[in-house]
Hints:
Blueprint: E1 2-6, E2 15-18, E3 28-38, H1 40-47, E4 60-61, E5 65-73, E6 85-89, E7 101-105, E8 109-111, H2 118-122, H3 125-138, E9 146-149, H4 157-166, E10 170-175, H5 180-186, E11 188-193, E12 206-211, H6 215-221, E13 225-233, H7 240-245, H8 254-273, E14 277-280, H9 287-299, E15 306-311, H10 315-323, E16 330-334
Helix pairs in contact: 3-4
The structure holds NADP nicotinamide-adenine-dinucleotide phosphate.
NADP nicotinamide-adenine-dinucleotide phosphate (NAP) binds near residues 155, 235 and 322.
Amino acid sequence: xxxxxxxxxxxxxxxxxxxxxxxxxxxxxxxxxxxxxxxxxxxxxxxxxxxxxxxxxxxxxxxxxxxxxxxxxxxxxxxxxxxxxxxxxxxxxxxxxxxxxxxxxxxxxxxxxxxxxxxxxxxxxxxxxxxxxxxxxxxxxxxxxxxxxxxxxxxxxxxxxxxxxxxxxxxxxxxxxxxxxxxxxxxxxxxxxxxxxxxxxxxxxxxxxxxxxxxxxxxxxxxxxxxxxxxxxxxxxxxxxxxxxxxxxxxxxxxxxxxxxxxxxxxxxxxxxxxxxxxxxxxxxxxxxxxxxxxxxxxxxxxxxxxxxxxxxxxxxxxxxxxxxxxxxxxxxxx
Length: 335
Ligand SMILES: NC(=O)c1ccc[n+]([C@@H]2O[C@H](COP(=O)([O-])OP(=O)(O)OC[C@H]3O[C@@H](n4cnc5c(N)ncnc54)[C@H](OP(=O)(O)O)[C@@H]3O)[C@@H](O)[C@H]2O)c1
């Protein structure tokens, strides 16, 4: 099969490789991929930005999200059969959806509802699960709460806003002026132009924040969340609460723990001083949760926002477009 791979970290173009079609284990299915979406984490994995917390064996096929058709099932798989339309987010230690086929644990996939195309389905798993785990599991967003979600116009924000709105939150986001109408239509109450100087002072106070930005913007967010409130970031440094929760895959050696403590200790301290529950999170794969989320989306007529589609042989161009940092919604590769 054809697959887009890297054999070392760096900014070099992807290699189009010929690989054997993988064979599913007893608990896996083999999926023929019809669509795969691109996420900034594909670039982070490619550049080696996550090497401290994610081990990589080369050659590595990139790609986390997929939608496709079950071609073969392992002997212990009873919930899916050949021909089922399925989608999912591949786990961090078994990625590779920029390929014609992929094997995946059956527990990490869900059926695609009839009302979603393969392109729409491929646009949901990683950003949908991230938004759902952040807003529902960690922030426990309740109806009427004021929630801050910066950078609402990208792939993640464009699904996080409607999910937060469906959970009953009053959502404030930041974006360029061109995206204001679209983000209000998705459910944002207030859209602040992040190009204005001191835009953070216009924000007011929130019950919770789902940070997509990290850096200075994350630090400043602490001044806008009430005592007793919560902040979850997907773009800061792994912090104490995150490391405490992790399983074997993310067990870090002592020097690395020390480094991360240096990088995240300041915000942990700030959170403690202000009585804010603060954590970094990395999205987890889950077919059951993807099915739960998809029910929520379809019941409330929420669709993912698709910015552009690219063909499989344009995979590098799709990655370059996401690397520009200006995608307005999801970028999907079709086969
Ligand atoms: N930890 C995790 O599990 C996890 C999971 C998912 C995503 N993430 C991270 O979350 C971040 C967002 O992901 P994404 O898929 O939404 O990325 P994306 O689609 O590439 O985001 C692009 C969008 O960001 C907007 N933007 C750029 N600079 C901004 C700023 N200073 N303020 C407000 N908006 C700004 C751009 O709008 P303009 O063009 O108008 O500037 C563009 O629409 C990424 O860093 C990603 O790696 C982490």
